[in-house]
Amino acid sequence: MSEAQMMLSLAQPLQKLVADKFRTAYKDKSILFSETAVALLRTQKGAPFQLRYCPALAKKPKADGAEEKKEPARPKFDPFADPPDELLVANIPANKASHILVLNKFPVIHNHFIIATKANKPQTAILEKEDLGITHACLHAWQHDQHDQHGQNSSRLFAFFNSGEHSGASQPHRHLQFLPVEDMASPEAPAWELLLDRMTVRAHPELPLFQDPSLPFLHFSTPLEDGLSLTDLYSKYLLLLNAAMSAVRFPDQPLHQNLEVEEDGRAVFSYNLAMTTGILAICPRSREAVAMPESGATSSVALNGTLLGGTLMVKDEVEWDVLRHDHALLDGILAGVGYPPVSWEPNGNEIKL
User: What superfamily in CATH does domain 3-60+78-337 come from?
Assistant: First the structure.
């Protein structure tokens, strides 16, 4: 049993638990899986992005209920407060759970699952060590469960977190989400690659901060070394928060360290966080969605943390057609939901928009 499996206290390998639960829930219609069409877009500097089209999600029930017209206000439904057995994958750890693993009720990618705090903690607060540690353990457990014939890891998870009003967060109860990279991939867009893997250009001469200069929005990544302690993992998270806030508030100045990134129990800015076993990345957000008048007066494209994986989704056929035929719009959308890129590397990796 791997160290990650021991930390999670799972009775079976994580991949098997999720796949079996997903298969049964799909068969029993406990989850509402929606097929998507996929196309490959590229930024002006060549970064590949998946564009997914899913008209079925336009009919997805709203989290707080659609019948608010004249009825008294009711508490918003919390899908993580007491999830049904059909969706519950595991309690983490099993003996005294602080977190749960649960299937996404409305997936568009197979084996999409979620880690949520057992107690209802706020999505807008800074993540705690245990949130990151268990997420990191899930990533390693998944990768440990499957190896190719050469003994190499052949399966990976992509984790993401949406925090703040502009991040694309759909639930206030703290949760992070997992997507298997192999299930994200599509034969309709074979040249797609996980965006985190491209963030290899140094953004600071001394600190372990990196970026992809082909992206038109502010972001930073930092490597996660093998055997990383929970304390060091958390320090890297705080480094990214600090770097993102410094770049947003003081883009023309040297990196400001030790900034206050939390106030009154909330992060002071909206952001997306993403993680694999080897990389942690952040993207501060200025807005959730960007208007797309090319598709109509009320058209807009919203993005969440899958942005850091290199994927975005539309629910309207006109948006799907317009974006596929005019790739130049992609840069405007990506730049519009974030902030201008910043680099403190003296050799100059700053992107001029």
Answer: ATP adenylyltransferase (3.30.428.70)
